[in-house]
Design brief:
The chain is built from 5 helices and 12 strands. It is α/β, with parallel strands linked by helices. The protein has a single domain, classed as 3-Layer(aba) Sandwich (Rossmann fold), CATH 3.40.50. The strands form 3 sheets. It has a 7-stranded mixed beta sheet with strand order 2-1-3-4-12-11-10. It has a 3-stranded mixed beta sheet with strand order 5-6-9. The chain has a two-stranded antiparallel ribbon with strand order 7-8. The chain is globular, with a radius of gyration of 15 Å. Catalyzes the hydrolysis of glutamine to glutamate and ammonia as part of the biosynthesis of pyridoxal 5'-phosphate. The resulting ammonia molecule is channeled to the active site of PdxS.
């Protein structure tokens, strides 16, 4: 279905093995990223769900902040799920503030749907998907506001839960915990588009 891409999964904390497994199912080449050199020769990067403050601290400890910034500036596609959505945002609001990579023009309410006990699953309507998508929300954030150029692609209870901007894709739920690979397929298509854009702009 797709050419195999080398797709990094930020391997510091969170749902790492689950993303690796789903990528293998799609015949991709997952690479667990723990240090700056692991980003070399990657076609895309997934920042998985987990604990955003813990992931942030480990990004700093492992000197990954600038390399991820450079990866993004180079036009490579990045997919943030749950905590990854928080980390890609320009800003977080509410009492659960955490530093972010400040890459995507969105403002995020961390743990916006509540704590662990408030986790839930729901079918949601997603732009350009004919059938509803079964989303798994675990201590999930939501997008409070978006800037110019951000495309909202899904909402739940009038709250934005998935969006894209340029080479960034984010969702508030965990696509790696279902057998529905449509969000990963969107991301892989974004990698293909980004690769073509990079090639023509060199």
């Amino acid at each position: 279905m797709f050419s195999p891409y080398r797709i990094g999964v930020l391997g510091l904390q969170g749902a790492i093995s689950e993303h690796v497994s789903r990528l293998k199912e799609l015949k991709q080449q997952p690479v667990v990223v723990k240090k700056p050199t692991d980003l070399h020769q990657l076609d895309g990067l997934i920042i998985p769900g987990g604990e955003s403050t813990a992931i942030w601290k480990l990004i700093e400890e492992n000197h990954l902040y600038e390399p991820i910034q450079n990866f993004a500036t180079d036009g490579k596609a990045i997919f943030g799920t749950c905590a990854g959505l928080v980390l890609l945002s320009k800003e977080t609001i509410g009492r659960d503030y955490t530093p972010t990579l400040q890459l995507m023009d969105i403002t995020v309410e961390r743990n916006g749907f509540g704590r662990q006990k408030d986790s839930f699953e729901s079918n949601i309507q997603v732009q350009n998907m004919k059938e509803s998508y079964h989303a798994v929300f675990i201590r999930a954030p939501y997008i409070d506001s978006v800037g110019e150029g951000v495309e909202v692609i899904a909402a739940y209870d009038d709250k934005i839960v998935a969006a894209r901007q340029k080479n960034y894709l984010v969702c508030a739920f965990h696509p790696e915990l279902t057998d529905d690979d449509r969000f990963l397929e969107i991301f892989i298509n974004m990698i293909s588009s980004a690769e073509t854009s990079i090639m023509f702009n060199q």
